[in-house]
Write a structure and sequence with these properties.
heterodimer; A: 330 residues; 14 helices; B: 12 strands; 29% strand
């Protein structure tokens, strides 16, 4: 618990003081503290440097933290509720739906500010379709039907998105940069947009951490222990999806956070969701802050898309988890 | 006092009738063993009595109808040990036994000191304390079954339903598990309903046997009254001799001998 807190604090500090602009590190810290309530310190930074810190770095760091925590928490919750270690927050078609929404906003040359709401609605529509499809297939009994419906819906939305994108080839660059995920344009506006959804998602997921432990014995046994598995599943899935859609809407598709962070936490503290969920939230925040730090500092004169950084770490790790989990099954 | 009873319990599963008008009533401190050939509805009866299998007819738990009870109220009255419990990968034994406290923990809450104390007590009474912090997946079959019983015990229920609790255990561990259930039943005055394949064990531990065939009760009563070679031949298709052992009838399978030498 303490270790994760230290990592999180370290990640926040590093994001605050490091950057291509070369702002004085102590000044950056003083400038940030100055904005806390009841604190007034003179940072000694120039007006321009102060703006870099407070208008660029701090909101970007905050957004990275919110998005990372939400994706990691949602991933941990999905893995618990579906009892599937490879479930991720995009499982039910959120990514495909949000991608379609964002693509439509971009190709229609709508203002940039409308991309996030379009992506949000697209994501929710995809998951609602997956749910409706699963209900037709009798999903009240098992989670497997829901996963399969998610796969079908994701394929369908991706097909439409690819078609729309191909018909509007002039915007392909813009669509692509959204799909790879970015925090580069992040400001306080995005933070305000995401904050209520993120906090709500965290609270509801944390409140269900014990139920997810009960669900780990399967739905029939969980019911004989006194919980309503269908209700827990619906509540957790809807909450995690809402949080994921909001995160995707402001940051684009940042992959692998929802898989690797809960798995690292699980390897260290074991599978109990009472520890797994809070630590995944904190770990996800730290992970994405650091990934964003790498994305914006590793190459001089330009940024890597953050999705590239997380996937670069995530894909090999994912393979490792696959190999390790197939070992223990034998 | 009657702890659990059912009247006219009928159920169908995928269009096949699995229970057909079962009547049953079990007192506190009584152990009823349900026997019957494969596919006779034994597991369905356990599932219907715990509300896991939707069924027609009346199930009464204590003085309330099962259909009127909330899941958590049922869980506080009825503990179920399924035939093959799902063992969550990596969960510690004490976390696993804590799952039994679910009916007493508020929806938005988490376990309190009373729950922790109860789990420690259960672990102690089942000699599981040395394993408390070990992953349940690392336990042997017999230890694992004790942990599953521990989970059921920490529910503080008055009715214990066991579906083939000795499956996949060797003879010694089968005996240990059944002795443990016997002690727990005596100590807590539990009403126990279990299914068992082994008719000799059924006779040694059950106060009463019921024979279920195609979802119907075809015989019931004290083990010595029920376990007749003719009945076993008719319903199980087995040739046996029934001997008198120290703990009741011993059912001994015998080779079918041709009437004439071939």
């Amino acid at each position: 618990m303490t270790a994760v807190g230290v990592v999180l604090l370290g990640a926040a500090l590093a994001s605050l003081v490091l950057g291509p602009a070369g702002v004085d590190p102590w000044g950056a810290i003083r400038e940030t503290l100055d904005h806390l309530p009841f604190v007034s310190i003179d940072s000694g930074l120039s007006e321009q440097d102060a703006a870099i810190v407070w208008q660029l770095r701090v909101p970007r760091m905050t957004l990275a933290g919110l998005v990372g925590a939400t994706l990691a928490g949602a991933g941990g919750a999905y893995q618990g509720v579906f009892r599937n270690p490879l479930a991720d927050p995009y499982l039910l078609g959120v990514a495909a739906g949000a991608g379609l929404g964002a693509t439509i906003a971009i190709v229609s040359a709508l203002p940039t500010a409308s991309i996030a709401p379009f992506a949000f609605v697209g994501g929710l529509m995809a998951v609602a379709s997956a749910y409706a499809l699963a209900l037709l297939g009798g999903a009240r009994r098992t989670g497997a039907t829901l996963i399969l419906s998610g796969v079908a819906v994701a394929a369908f939305f991706t097909a439409i998105q690819t078609y729309v994108q191909q018909q509007n080839a002039d915007t392909i660059r813009q669509v692509f940069s959204w799909i790879l995920g970015r925090l580069g344009t992040a400001g306080w506006g995005e933070v305000r947009l995401l904050l209520p959804y993120a906090l709500g998602t965290w609270l509801v997921l944390l409140a269900h951490r014990r139920h997810l432990d009960v669900m780990s014995v399967g739905e029939e046994e969980a019911a004989t222990l006194g919980i309503d598995p269908a209700r827990v599943r619906v509540t957790v899935v809807i909450t995690a999806t809402l949080g994921t859609s909001a995160a995707v809407a402001v940051s684009g598709l940042i992959g692998f956070v929802g898989i690797i962070v809960p798995h690292i936490v699980r390897l260290v503290v074991g599978p109990s969701h009472r520890r797994l969920l809070p630590l995944s939230l904190a770990g996800g925040a730290a992970f994405l802050m650091l990934a964003d730090l790498v994305a914006r500092t590793v190459r001089s004169g330009g940024e890597l898309p953050i999705g590239v950084v997380t996937a670069f770490v995530g894909a090999p790790f994912f393979a490792f988890i696959l190999a390790a989990s197939s070992d223990t099954r034998r | 006092m009657t702890m659990v009873s059912c009247r006219g319990l009928s159920a169908a599963y995928n269009g096949t009738v699995v229970l057909d008008g079962v009547d049953l009533s079990v007192e506190d401190g009584e152990w009823v063993v349900v026997v019957g050939p494969n596919g006779s509805g034994k597991t369905s009866l356990i599932r219907a009595l715990s509300g896991s299998l939707p069924a027609e007819g009346e199930v009464t738990i204590g003085d309330r109808l099962l259909g009127d009870m909330r899941r958590r109220d049922i869980a506080a009255q009825v503990a179920v040990v399924p035939q093959t419990p799902v063992i969550p990968e990596g969960m510690t034994v004490s976390d696993y036994v804590m799952l039994g406290r679910t009916p007493y923990i508020p929806y938005w809450g988490t376990e309190g000191p009373a729950d922790v104390a109860r789990v420690a007590e259960v672990l102690g009474s089942l000699d599981l304390l040395p394993f408390a912090n070990r992953p349940i997946t690392s336990l042997s079959g017999g230890e694992r079954q004790r942990a599953v019983l521990g989970r059921a015990l920490s529910q503080d229920a008055s009715v214990l339903l066991l579906d083939e609790p000795t499956t996949a255990l060797d003879l010694g561990h089968q005996q240990q598990v059944l002795e443990l259930v016997h002690q727990l039943r005596d100590r807590h005055r539990l009403a126990v309903i279990s299914t068992l394949h082994d008719l000799t064990f059924a006779a040694a531990y059950g106060d009463r046997l019921i024979v279920l065939v195609e979802g119907r009760v075809v015989a019931s009563g004290k083990p010595a009254e029920v376990l007749e070679p003719k009945l076993i031949e008719e319903y199980f298709g087995a040739t046996v001799e029934v001997l008198q052992g120290p703990d009741g009838p011993v059912v001994l399978p015998v080779r079918r001998r041709p009437l004439r030498p071939v």
